Amino acid sequence: MNEKMAGPVIRVKDLYKIYRIGENRVRALNGVDFTIEKGEFCCIVGTSGSGKSTLLNMLAGLEKPTKGEIVIAGEHIEKKSESQLVVFRQAHVGFIFQSYNLLPNMTALENVALPLTFQGVDKKTRQLRAAAMLKLVGLAKYLKHKPGQMSGGQQQRVGIARALVVEPEIIFADEPTGNLDSNTSLEVMQLIQKIVRKKNQTLVMVTHDNYLAGFGDRVIHIRDGKIIQIEDNRERNRETQEAEQSETMMPETGVPETEVPGMEVPGMEVSETEVPETEVPENETWKNEISGN
Ligand SMILES: Nc1ncnc2c1ncn2[C@@H]1O[C@H](COP(=O)(O)OP(=O)(O)OP(=O)(O)O)[C@@H](O)[C@H]1O
Ligand SMILES: [Mg+2]
């Protein structure tokens, strides 16, 4: 158990989602109960159509449950209106999508800086924070690149930087590595995990890849809208972490070398000449795209 964890940040109780199409009813979620601890990395796995995305969308308040309770950061999501949900998401939640969802005409820097505009952060600070975040995901040289000028893995790193730049309490990721090859998938997933752990953020990741799911503290297996198993890897992961830490101990001093090079967010200097002006459209649909509506 991670000592930083402190009580559940997500509580789901007796959750149902039933879709009606004509005469047919699909029980996409058929009575689901679980809790997720603060700082936990929780994976949701299951075959196609098992209800993974439905569950994640419901946790994020993107869809209303048919029945049941969802309490996140102490607030009942299922009771909130659309406008309350927009405010809630901006305050607590970040999203990473399978299809990146970057804005094609904006540079990497502009894409990552965008969510900060909705928090009223001034332009200079937005650019500094976006640049630092892009550096953290290994894209310091790609600030001015547009999505079409980057590989899938690089675009997904931009997507990660955009989700994390606002430092949300909870990150929801739906198949974030679904469009990547297996090596890049592992790298991208470990990158997300590393950043999230460092800040003690909670990560809920949907995947159909059992290998990637094995990196999670816990793995919720779902089938036909029901939880069939919850796998707990926390003890095993803690032992692995401890073994890794003792390997990096300096033998003479016993001082752990926990800092990973390039993982720090320094007050990175970005001069006005280096960085293009960040034009932010006032259009509401841009805002909705980012907040996940
Ligand atoms: N808007 C909708 N209207 C009707 N049925 C839906 C809707 N969304 C999902 N479903 C149904 O609910 C079930 C669960 O779908 P969901 O998208 O949650 O699956 P999933 O586990 O995410 O699958 P995948 O791995 O393919 O993304 C499926 O049977 C699907 O057809
Ligand atoms: Mg899905």
List key phrases describing it.
single chain, 293 residues, alpha/beta, Rossmann fold, six-stranded mixed beta sheet, four-stranded antiparallel beta sheet, 9 helices, 24% strand, globular, binds adenosine-5'-triphosphate, binds magnesium ion
Structure description:
The chain is of the alpha/beta class. The chain has a single domain, classed as P-loop containing nucleotide triphosphate hydrolases (Rossmann fold), CATH 3.40.50. It is built from 9 helices and 10 strands. It has helices at residues 52-59, 82-92, 108-117, 123-136, 152-164, 182-198, 210-213, 234-247, 284-291; strands spanning 8-21, 24-37, 41-45, 67-72, 75-76, 93-96, 170-174, 202-207, 218-223, 226-232. A hairpin with a 2-residue loop joins strand 4 (67-72) and strand 5 (75-76). It is globular, with a radius of gyration of 20 Å. Bound molecules: adenosine-5'-triphosphate and magnesium ion.
Secondary structure layout plus pairing:
Blueprint: E1 8-21, E2 24-37, E3 41-45, H1 52-59, E4 67-72, E5 75-76, H2 82-92, E6 93-96, H3 108-117, H4 123-136, H5 152-164, E7 170-174, H6 182-198, E8 202-207, H7 210-213, E9 218-223, E10 226-232, H8 234-247, H9 284-291
Parallel strand pairs: 3-8, 3-9, 6-7, 7-8
Antiparallel strand pairs: 1-2, 1-4, 4-5, 9-10
Helix pairs in contact: 3-4, 3-5, 4-5, 5-6
Bound molecules: adenosine-5'-triphosphate (ATP) and magnesium ion.
